[in-house]
Amino acid sequence: MSTQGPLPAPAERAMEIVLEVSDLEASARFYRDTLGMPEIERWTDRPAIWVKAATGTYLGLCKPEAGGPGIGLFDSRGGAHIHLAFLVPQGQLEAIEGRLRAGGYALTGRSEFSPQKRSIYVNDPDGNVIEFADWTVSWEGLPVER
After folding, report:
1. Which of 14, 18, 19 is nearest to 124 (CA)?
2. pLDDT tens across 32-84, in order?
3. So what's the pLDDT on residue 4?
4. 40-45-47-48 Cα dihedral, nearest 10 degrees
5. How far are the Cα atoms of 57, 138, 142, 144 from residue 51, in angstroms, in the given order?
6. Domain boundaries, the chain
7. 119: which strand partners?
8. Under DSSP, is residue 93 helix (H, G, I), strand (E, B) or coil?
């Protein structure tokens, strides 16, 4: 556990995360409708949408044919993420769980690394593990940067 301030990070925040999805509309229902991440842009030339995951952080939801050689930026395409975590406002885990249940999504687990690090987990429509974390202490043992 560190007694210093946070180590300097090479970036200010995650700006963009891209997930490859099999069913764009099912993913839109999960991220946009159930979780409330506003849809920011929908591409008309390729099957992809962008939602606002957090202040200044966007989540791209793209079908496989939206990326790759000659299509995606520098031949990129979304990947199969094992785990993606979102920091939620303090005290909001139960509200997030309620939204998930109301949308027909069951939790796949819970963790409490300590009383200051509580999380819930759900699988998105493509089986990606999505974590919602209500943490007040970071992995560095310091107050969570908000």
Report:
1. 19
2. 999 999 999 999 888 999 999 998 899 999 998 887 777 666 676 666 666 89
3. 65
4. -30
5. 9, 26, 30, 24
6. 16-135
7. 111, 133
8. helix
The model's pTM: 0.84
**Residue 143: beta bridge partners?**
137
Question: Which tokens is 71 given?
Answer: 């299509």
Mean pLDDT of the chain: 88
Neighbours of 47 (CB within 10 A): 16
Residue 5: the pLDDT is 67
Domain 16-135 carries which CATH code?
A: 3.10.180.10
pLDDT for the residue 39: 97
Q: Are the beta carbons of 54 and 95 closer than 8 angstroms?
A: no
Give CA–CA dist 61/37, Å, rounded: 12
Cβ–Cβ < 8 Å for 60, 18: yes
Q: What is the 3-state secondary structure (H, E, C) of the chain?
A: CCCCCCCCCCCCCCCEEEEECCCHHHHHHHHHHHCCCCEEEECCCCCEEEEEEECCEEEEEECHHHCCCCCCHHHCCCECCCEEEEECCCCCHHHHHHHHHHCCCCEEEEEEEECCEEEEEEECCCCCEEEEEEECECCCCCECCC
